[in-house]
Amino acid sequence: MGWFWTLLLRGNGLAGPVVMLLYPLYASIKAIESPFKEDDQQWLTYWVIYSFITLLELGAGPVLAWIPLWSTIKLVFAAWLVLPQFRGGALVYERYVRPYFYKSGVNLDQKLTDSQRKFLSSMSPQARSSVAEFIDHNGLDAFDKIMAAANAESRKRRGDS
After folding, report:
1. Contact predicate 80/111, CB 8 Å
2. Which of 8, 61, 121, 148 is most buried, taking the most CB atoms under 10 A from its CB?
3. Where does the sequence pass through the membrane (predicted)?
4. First-to-last CA distance in the chain?
5. Lowest-confidence range among 4-13, 26-35, 57-66, 113-122?
6. Which pLDDT belongs to residue 70?
7. Residue 120: partners with Cβ closer than 8 Å, 6 or more residues away
C-alpha cells in the first residue's frame, strides 16, 4: 500500500501541469475558435479560479503545505473544474461569482428582452460598453424608449422603400 501513496504523491508532478495547464490551454484555444458562448464561459471561469488558487498559494503557501495531501486535493479540484462532464467552472461561476459580481450593478443579462440581447450582440464590444454605461446612468426604461424609437424608425424606412 505504501507504493500506492508514493505513486499518488509523485504523480502530481506530471499530472498537475497536464490537468491544470496543458489541457485547459488546449480547450481554451478550441473555445476561442468555436461560435458557442458556453465553452468560453467554462474556460474563462476556469482561468479565473485557477488564478485565485495560485494567488492563494502564493500568499498562504507555508500554511497550505501543512495540509495533508494539499497537492492531491488541488489536483482533484482542478480536474472537477476542467472535465466537461462536471462543468465545475461554470457551476462555481453561476453559484458563487456571478451573484456577488452583479450584487451592486445592473444584471443586464436577466433584465434584457431577447430582441435587446440580439441587438446588443450585433454591436462591437466598445458599443456594448457604452450601452451598459448609458443604462447605468439613465436606467433600463430609457434604453427601452431608444429601442422602441429605433424599431419604429426601421419599420418606417421599410414601409417607405
Report:
1. no
2. 8
3. 14-32, 44-67
4. 82
5. 4-13
6. 82
7. 112, 128, 131
CA angle 99, 102, 106 (to 5 degrees): 140
Measured CA to CA, the distance from residue 9 to residue 69 in angstroms comes to 8
Neighbours of 90 (CB within 10 A): 19
pLDDT tens digits along 87-107: 787 788 778 777 766 654 545
CA–CA gap between residue 142 and residue 84 (Å, rounded): 40
DSSP state of 8: H
pTM: 0.53
Q: Which three cell numbers stand for residue 5?
A: 501513496
Helices (H), 18-160: 23-33, 37-65, 70-82, 88-92, 98-101, 108-111, 114-121, 125-138, 140-160
